[in-house]
Amino acid sequence: MALPEDIRIRIEKRLREYCEKKVPPKYRDELRLGFKVRGNSVTLFEERPSFTNPSEWVDIVVAQFRYNLQTKEWTLYCADRNSRWHEYLDSIPSKRFSEILQDVEEDVTGIFWG
Questions:
Q1: Mean pLDDT of 88-112
Q2: Is the dihedral of CA 72, 7, 113, 85 positive or negative?
Q3: What is the pLDDT of residues 17-41, one digit of tens each?
Q4: Is the sign of the CA dihedral 70, 97, 46, 2 positive or negative?
Q5: Residues 6+ apart with CB under 8 A from 79
Q6: Would you call 83 helix, strand, or coil by DSSP?
Q7: Which class for 14: exposed (0-12), middle (13-18), buried (19 or more C-beta within 10 A)?
Q8: Closest C-alpha to 48, from 59, 38, 40
Q9: Where in the chain are the domains?
């Protein structure tokens, strides 16, 4: 099921701002941040030039945010080495997306940013 339109617009705006601030302009030829919305999930990812072909960029997933339409809460997920998603248990589901994004930014376990 898709995100409600008003929520999708608000989240896309917030993540565009976050991605712009996270990577300084002088490094954007080496690293970019982006996100994809699919259904009720929003996936944050890094983009880096491929080692084998630097003109191609590859995506590396960072985090996934899932919205529950019934509870109106966001839940944070992290990827394992096979890019399978698992609920990140050090984050509490929240109605405020900013709280979940802050958990990614603080990254107390090093699972999102290494």
A1: 97
A2: positive
A3: 999 999 999 999 999 999 999 999 9
A4: positive
A5: 61, 62, 63, 64, 85, 86
A6: coil
A7: middle
A8: 59
A9: 5-106
How far apart CA 84 and CA 7 sit, in angstroms, is 25
**Residue corresponding to tokens 């999930």:** 41
Distance CA 91, CA 105 (A): 12
Over the chain, what is the mean pLDDT? 96
Query: What is the rounded CA–CA span in Å between residue 97 and residue 110?
Result: 20
Q: Is 107 left (phi over 0), alpha (psi -120 to 50) or beta?
A: left
Q: What is the pTM of this model?
A: 0.94
Helix (H) or strand (E) holding 20: helix 5-22
| Whether the Cβ atoms of residue 111 and residue 104 lie closer than 8 Å to each other | no
**Would you call 32 helix, strand, or coil by DSSP?**
strand
Reply yes or no on whether the pLDDT at 94 is more than 90. Answer: yes
Residue 43 is which amino acid? T
